[in-house]
Design a protein that fits this description.
By secondary structure, the chain is mainly beta. The protein has one domain: Jelly Rolls (Sandwich), CATH 2.60.120. Helix content is 6%, strand content 39%. The chain is built from two helices and 13 strands, in the order E-E-E-E-H-E-E-E-E-E-E-E-E-E-H. The strands form three sheets. Strands 1-2-10-7-12-5 form a six-stranded antiparallel sheet, with helices on one face. The chain has a five-stranded antiparallel sheet with strand order 9-8-11-6-13, with no helix packed on it. It starts with a strand and ends in an 18-residue tail after the last helix. The chain binds dtdp-4-keto-L-rhamnose. Pathway: Carbohydrate biosynthesis; dTDP-L-rhamnose biosynthesis. Its EC number is 5.1.3.13.
Protein backbone atom coordinates (compact mmCIF):
# COMPACT_ATOMS: atom_id res chain seq x y z
CA UNK A 1 0.00 0.00 0.00
CA UNK A 2 1.52 3.30 -1.10
CA UNK A 3 0.37 6.18 1.12
CA UNK A 4 1.15 9.76 0.16
CA UNK A 5 0.15 13.03 1.79
CA UNK A 6 -1.90 15.48 -0.29
CA UNK A 7 -1.55 19.27 -0.32
CA UNK A 8 -3.52 19.35 2.97
CA UNK A 9 -1.83 17.81 6.01
CA UNK A 10 -3.42 14.57 7.21
CA UNK A 11 -5.50 14.07 4.05
CA UNK A 12 -3.86 10.99 2.55
CA UNK A 13 -4.00 9.26 -0.80
CA UNK A 14 -3.75 5.46 -0.58
CA UNK A 15 -2.83 3.27 -3.54
CA UNK A 16 -3.08 -0.47 -2.92
CA UNK A 17 -0.47 -2.74 -4.49
CA UNK A 18 -2.28 -4.87 -7.07
CA UNK A 19 -0.83 -8.37 -7.57
CA UNK A 20 -1.97 -9.77 -10.88
CA UNK A 21 -1.72 -13.34 -12.10
CA UNK A 22 -3.52 -15.59 -14.56
CA UNK A 23 -6.53 -15.80 -12.21
CA UNK A 24 -7.04 -12.09 -11.90
CA UNK A 25 -5.67 -9.91 -9.09
CA UNK A 26 -5.25 -9.72 -5.34
CA UNK A 27 -4.82 -6.61 -3.23
CA UNK A 28 -4.90 -5.64 0.42
CA UNK A 29 -7.55 -2.95 0.67
CA UNK A 30 -6.94 -1.90 4.29
CA UNK A 31 -3.89 -1.98 6.60
CA UNK A 32 -4.36 -0.33 9.98
CA UNK A 33 -0.60 -0.50 10.68
CA UNK A 34 0.29 1.31 7.45
CA UNK A 35 -2.37 3.96 8.01
CA UNK A 36 -1.22 4.59 11.58
CA UNK A 37 2.41 4.82 10.46
CA UNK A 38 1.50 7.38 7.78
CA UNK A 39 -0.72 9.43 10.07
CA UNK A 40 1.30 9.32 13.27
CA UNK A 41 -1.89 8.99 15.29
CA UNK A 42 -4.46 6.27 15.80
CA UNK A 43 -7.91 5.91 14.30
CA UNK A 44 -10.38 3.22 15.26
CA UNK A 45 -12.91 2.52 12.54
CA UNK A 46 -16.29 1.38 13.88
CA UNK A 47 -18.72 1.52 10.94
CA UNK A 48 -18.58 0.64 7.22
CA UNK A 49 -20.92 2.36 4.76
CA UNK A 50 -21.85 1.79 1.14
CA UNK A 51 -23.90 3.87 -1.26
CA UNK A 52 -24.81 3.38 -4.89
CA UNK A 53 -25.63 6.38 -7.06
CA UNK A 54 -26.22 7.18 -10.69
CA UNK A 55 -24.37 9.62 -12.91
CA UNK A 56 -24.59 13.22 -11.71
CA UNK A 57 -25.58 12.34 -8.14
CA UNK A 58 -23.75 14.66 -5.75
CA UNK A 59 -23.72 13.69 -2.07
CA UNK A 60 -22.29 16.30 0.29
CA UNK A 61 -20.70 18.23 1.68
CA UNK A 62 -21.22 16.37 4.96
CA UNK A 63 -19.65 16.16 8.42
CA UNK A 64 -20.62 15.36 11.99
CA UNK A 65 -19.98 17.65 14.94
CA UNK A 66 -18.13 16.44 18.07
CA UNK A 67 -18.51 14.20 19.97
CA UNK A 68 -19.41 12.33 16.75
CA UNK A 69 -16.82 13.84 14.37
CA UNK A 70 -15.71 11.24 11.84
CA UNK A 71 -12.56 10.31 9.95
CA UNK A 72 -13.39 8.58 6.68
CA UNK A 73 -11.51 6.14 4.48
CA UNK A 74 -13.23 6.17 1.10
CA UNK A 75 -12.98 3.91 -1.95
CA UNK A 76 -14.99 3.11 -5.05
CA UNK A 77 -15.75 -0.50 -6.02
CA UNK A 78 -17.78 0.23 -9.17
CA UNK A 79 -17.64 3.26 -11.43
CA UNK A 80 -15.88 6.56 -10.86
CA UNK A 81 -16.42 9.60 -8.64
CA UNK A 82 -14.77 12.93 -8.00
CA UNK A 83 -14.24 12.90 -4.25
CA UNK A 84 -13.81 16.16 -2.35
CA UNK A 85 -12.62 16.91 1.19
CA UNK A 86 -12.89 20.47 2.54
CA UNK A 87 -10.90 21.64 5.55
CA UNK A 88 -13.41 23.22 7.94
CA UNK A 89 -11.14 23.46 11.01
CA UNK A 90 -11.37 27.17 11.84
CA UNK A 91 -7.83 27.36 13.23
CA UNK A 92 -6.29 25.55 10.28
CA UNK A 93 -3.91 27.36 7.90
CA UNK A 94 -5.78 25.57 5.09
CA UNK A 95 -9.30 26.46 6.36
CA UNK A 96 -11.70 26.45 3.39
CA UNK A 97 -9.24 24.67 1.08
CA UNK A 98 -10.15 21.39 -0.56
CA UNK A 99 -8.59 18.24 -1.96
CA UNK A 100 -10.34 16.79 -5.03
CA UNK A 101 -9.39 13.41 -6.40
CA UNK A 102 -10.85 10.87 -8.78
CA UNK A 103 -11.56 7.53 -7.13
CA UNK A 104 -12.59 4.65 -9.33
CA UNK A 105 -12.91 0.89 -9.41
CA UNK A 106 -10.20 1.06 -12.06
CA UNK A 107 -7.59 3.21 -10.27
CA UNK A 108 -8.40 1.57 -6.88
CA UNK A 109 -7.32 4.70 -5.03
CA UNK A 110 -8.57 5.55 -1.57
CA UNK A 111 -8.63 8.82 0.33
CA UNK A 112 -8.27 9.23 4.08
CA UNK A 113 -10.19 12.26 5.34
CA UNK A 114 -9.55 13.27 8.95
CA UNK A 115 -12.04 14.63 11.46
CA UNK A 116 -12.57 18.35 10.87
CA UNK A 117 -13.34 17.99 7.16
CA UNK A 118 -16.55 18.10 5.14
CA UNK A 119 -16.81 15.38 2.52
CA UNK A 120 -18.71 14.98 -0.72
CA UNK A 121 -18.55 13.31 -4.09
CA UNK A 122 -20.13 13.45 -7.51
CA UNK A 123 -20.64 10.41 -9.73
CA UNK A 124 -18.88 10.69 -13.10
CA UNK A 125 -19.73 7.21 -14.43
CA UNK A 126 -23.11 5.64 -15.23
CA UNK A 127 -23.32 4.33 -11.65
CA UNK A 128 -20.86 4.26 -8.77
CA UNK A 129 -20.68 2.20 -5.61
CA UNK A 130 -18.78 4.00 -2.85
CA UNK A 131 -17.63 2.27 0.32
CA UNK A 132 -16.14 4.01 3.33
CA UNK A 133 -15.08 3.35 6.87
CA UNK A 134 -15.84 5.86 9.63
CA UNK A 135 -14.36 6.10 13.12
CA UNK A 136 -17.49 7.30 14.89
CA UNK A 137 -21.06 6.09 14.65
CA UNK A 138 -23.67 7.88 12.60
CA UNK A 139 -25.51 10.48 14.63
CA UNK A 140 -28.41 12.23 12.89
CA UNK A 141 -28.32 14.94 15.58
CA UNK A 142 -24.66 15.74 14.84
CA UNK A 143 -25.03 15.50 11.07
CA UNK A 144 -24.27 18.81 9.29
CA UNK A 145 -23.66 20.03 5.76
CA UNK A 146 -22.25 22.82 3.65
CA UNK A 147 -23.72 23.68 0.30
CA UNK A 148 -21.78 22.11 -2.60
CA UNK A 149 -21.72 25.29 -4.70
CA UNK A 150 -20.57 27.79 -2.06
CA UNK A 151 -18.67 30.37 -4.16
CA UNK A 152 -16.10 30.75 -1.36
CA UNK A 153 -15.13 27.10 -1.84
CA UNK A 154 -15.19 27.31 -5.64
CA UNK A 155 -15.27 23.52 -6.13
CA UNK A 156 -15.17 22.34 -9.74
CA UNK A 157 -17.59 19.41 -9.75
CA UNK A 158 -16.74 18.69 -13.41
CA UNK A 159 -20.39 18.32 -14.54
CA UNK A 160 -22.71 21.14 -15.66
CA UNK A 161 -25.02 22.34 -12.85
CA UNK A 162 -28.15 21.10 -14.67
CA UNK A 163 -26.78 17.53 -14.64
CA UNK A 164 -26.29 17.40 -10.86
CA UNK A 165 -28.76 15.42 -8.75
CA UNK A 166 -28.94 16.31 -5.06
CA UNK A 167 -31.13 15.38 -2.13
CA UNK A 168 -33.49 18.11 -0.97
CA UNK A 169 -31.36 18.40 2.19
CA UNK A 170 -28.15 18.94 0.20
CA UNK A 171 -29.68 21.58 -2.10
CA UNK A 172 -30.47 23.68 0.98
CA UNK A 173 -27.34 23.34 3.08
CA UNK A 174 -25.78 26.52 4.53
CA UNK A 175 -22.66 28.20 3.18
CA UNK A 176 -19.30 27.68 4.92
CA UNK A 177 -19.75 31.13 6.50
CA UNK A 178 -23.20 30.22 7.90
CA UNK A 179 -22.37 26.67 8.94
CA UNK A 180 -21.92 25.45 12.49
CA UNK A 181 -18.26 24.41 12.59
CA UNK A 182 -15.93 22.66 14.97
CA UNK A 183 -14.83 24.26 18.21
CA UNK A 184 -11.05 24.78 18.47
CA UNK A 185 -10.20 21.50 20.16
CA UNK A 186 -8.27 18.37 19.36
CA UNK A 187 -10.86 16.38 17.43
CA UNK A 188 -9.09 13.10 18.26
CA UNK A 189 -9.37 13.38 22.05
C1 LIG B 1 -24.67 8.52 6.73
C2 LIG B 1 -25.75 7.61 7.30
C3 LIG B 1 -27.06 7.75 6.87
N1 LIG B 1 -28.03 6.94 7.38
C4 LIG B 1 -29.41 7.09 6.89
C5 LIG B 1 -30.01 8.47 7.03
C6 LIG B 1 -30.95 8.56 5.84
O1 LIG B 1 -32.18 7.97 6.15
C7 LIG B 1 -30.27 7.69 4.78
C8 LIG B 1 -29.49 8.51 3.74
O2 LIG B 1 -28.67 9.44 4.45
P1 LIG B 1 -27.94 10.62 3.70
O3 LIG B 1 -28.87 11.26 2.74
O4 LIG B 1 -27.31 11.50 4.74
O5 LIG B 1 -26.83 9.81 2.88
P2 LIG B 1 -25.57 10.38 2.10
O6 LIG B 1 -25.95 11.63 1.41
O7 LIG B 1 -25.01 9.28 1.30
O8 LIG B 1 -24.60 10.75 3.30
C9 LIG B 1 -23.24 10.45 3.25
O9 LIG B 1 -22.62 11.35 2.34
C10 LIG B 1 -21.22 11.20 2.23
C11 LIG B 1 -20.73 12.27 1.28
C12 LIG B 1 -20.52 11.18 3.53
O10 LIG B 1 -19.42 11.70 3.69
C13 LIG B 1 -21.16 10.36 4.59
O11 LIG B 1 -20.55 10.58 5.85
C14 LIG B 1 -22.64 10.59 4.65
O12 LIG B 1 -22.90 11.89 5.18
O13 LIG B 1 -29.38 6.84 5.50
C15 LIG B 1 -27.74 5.96 8.31
O14 LIG B 1 -28.64 5.21 8.76
N2 LIG B 1 -26.43 5.80 8.72
C16 LIG B 1 -25.43 6.59 8.25
O15 LIG B 1 -24.24 6.41 8.64
Amino acid sequence: MKITPTQIADVLLLEPRVLEDSRGYFMETFRLDALHAALGFQVGFVQDNESCSRCGVLRGLHYQLPPFAQSKLVRVVAGCVLDVAVDIRRESPTFGACVSTELSAENKRQIFIPRGFAHGFVVLSEVAVVQYKVDNYYSSKSDRGIVYNDPHLGIDWRLPADQLLLSDKDSHQPSLKEAELFPAENLYE
